[in-house]
Amino acid sequence: MDEEQKNFNQLKTKSLKVGINKIYDQSAEILKLKEELRIKDSEIERLSLKLTAFQSYPGKVDYQGIDENFDCTYHLAFTFSSPLVRRINSTVGIISQLDYINEIRNIEKHLKGVNQEIRYKVEVATISNFRSVIADAPFALHFTGHGIKNDKSALGSTYLQFKDKGDILLLEDDNGMADYLFQEDLK
């Protein structure tokens, strides 16, 4: 084999390796994009469920036993939180989704058929919404969501920073990520 043919074969081999590496890189990018799309689809589904929840609950049902003179903007607050993921150190973990719509419907079903009006509010449990609901001082508050123990296995390396703040409610941020509300912050 002459030198020119040998150089051509080496160049061809290098080109094939570069091409294969590009294919691997593109495959990895496609997998990454598919995972991002799956997360976005889940987020769209979650937001769609929330929209359905808001449209399904006009804010009034009849309820027996509430004092007519009880002065508040609304009597009951239904708060729900079902974040898609939470970050532990640099790892992102998926959180099981809750059927909060069905839970709210079941509560509403049990409130129907009585003699007095009750005003209620349905809110996504972000930290600001949760604090606002508590500040409004409704007669009752119903929370649907996850809670976790404040320990090293739940918080990873950030545990030392938060170890004295008590256990945690998982609320949501505006992007569907878990946002921590510590027991100490509820006092």
Structure, briefly:
By secondary structure, the chain is α/β, with parallel strands linked by helices.
Would you kindly provide a written description of the structure presented here, covering whatever features stand out?
This protein has 5 helices and 9 strands, in the order αββββαβαββααββ. 14% of the residues are buried. The longest helix has 54 residues, at 3-56. 45% of the residues lie in helices and 22% in strands. The protein is an alpha/beta fold and 187 residues long. It folds into 2 domains: 1-56; 58-186, no CATH class. The protein has helices spanning 3-56, 100-111, 127-136, 152-155, 159-162; strands at 60-62, 76-80, 85-88, 91-94, 117-124, 140-144, 146-148, 168-172, 178-182. The radius of gyration is 26 Å and the shape is elongated. The strands form 3 sheets. Strands 1-5-2-6 form a 4-stranded mixed beta sheet, sandwiched between helices. It has a 3-stranded antiparallel beta sheet with strand order 7-8-9, with no helix packed on it. Strands 3-4 form a two-stranded antiparallel ribbon.
